[in-house]
Amino acid sequence: MNKDVQESGSSFSGDPPLLRLERITKRFPGVLALDGVDFDLRPGEVHVLFGENGAGKSTLISIVAGALRPDGGRIAFRGKPIGLASVHHARSLGISAVFQEFSLVPQLTVEQNLFLGAEETSFGILNKTAPHERAVEILQRLGFPLRPTQRVAFLSRAEQQMVEIAKAFRSDLSVLILDEPTASLTDRETEQLFALIEQIKAQGVGIIYITHRINEIRRIGDRITVLRDGRYVATVDAKTSEDELVRLMTGRVIEQIFPDVRYQPGETFLEVENLTTGDGTVANVSLNVRRGEIVGLAGLVGSGKSEVARACFGLIPISGGRVTLAGEETTKLSPQHMLDRGFFYVPPDRRSEGLLMMRSVRENIALPALSTPGFSHGPVLRRHAEYARAQELAKRLNLQPLRVERDVDHFSGGNQQKVLLAKSLTRDVKLFVFDEPTVGVDVGTRVAIYEFIRDLCESGAAILLISSDLPEILHLTNRVYVMCRGGLAAELTGKDISQENVLRHCFEREAA
Description:
By secondary structure, the protein is an alpha/beta fold. Helices cover 32% and strands 25% of the residues.
């Protein structure tokens, strides 16, 4: 381990490690996912795992959670060697994981999901009363606004995230693993989670935390272990500078995360006038996007910013207003018709909306363009052309590994995002709408995505960037619309695009 590591901020920092992993190795067919990785966790600390997508973080926590068995190395828990045989075995020791990808059964209720696999029985008869009472107690203790009898299928993604977190608290905890736990949470819900983390730290629980958000590391982290390409790089204090973390993570110095963009605004391509959605999430919103510029759409979670784009694309019914593309009214047209007119929408949730996870990269990339001459001749698909185009786009976006016949589900999150972006290049697209394009990706992939967006803009495309990440809005756009409570709060340009102005307009209608 790194000898220059600073002491953790944990009050238990003098205690022996709660968990120690030594020289952990894990192989998959054709891939060495972990190559002799060391890691230790102390009682009462938040130890952050940091690295690019594909660095080995998910594999490492899957081993700690009992979901995978290592091919080599040793694990010690409370000073004693141990082999974690299964997830059930790990949970019996108080090791619980909240993975980025949910493991919920949509048809079951919240309380049924909380105790799935740990149901109480009496003489072979299921005890339905005790789980309900325990579910009420857990949800109240965590401060999550959920009803135990709610069916999970009808919950929002943020609410489903709460259920996943609550599952980890159904038994006594020793080690809690959190994989990007705030990705679907509002600021208020995130603060509740952080307060909960402080509580269990004080009780001596060790927390393994995966995030790409530097502000979260500063807020709750004690130590950071950096992985790169399946190898251990260093363990450093959570106060280590962002530049140094990026250098450790990528092996290179990134002088500037956000590229300079040469905006050359031309004719207006998208014109939205007094847009109102049928579900009431958006009311009387007007905006426009010109070719050769990046327009930001900012706002808090629930402000309606995503719903504006989804309505324009035909995913949400419109009850009032007009949508015009290149001077042609397209209000209430279907997504297929919008695609045909050069409008491509990149959704925020790649797994549930953007990609077919159990199909190959080739099939996913080609899907939006199967009806076009480049991919089919009448009813017959041109397989060779499809493969060649998918290979070309995968190489352009630096897909790692470059295997277009591999199922998307077998790639890291950052590489899945690259496949999602590659889909937008299979057609003649004039308007790109990127809805939270960097959620759950590392700094290296984030830089690549920003450069991708810049190149599209400079080639004359119209770009609408919807983001909850304020630095993206501030550094990439030349105009910004701010949404608040379903309405348009402001349009900012030039020097008026500042953190203070955007936040002020985000909240002023809330206060009203």
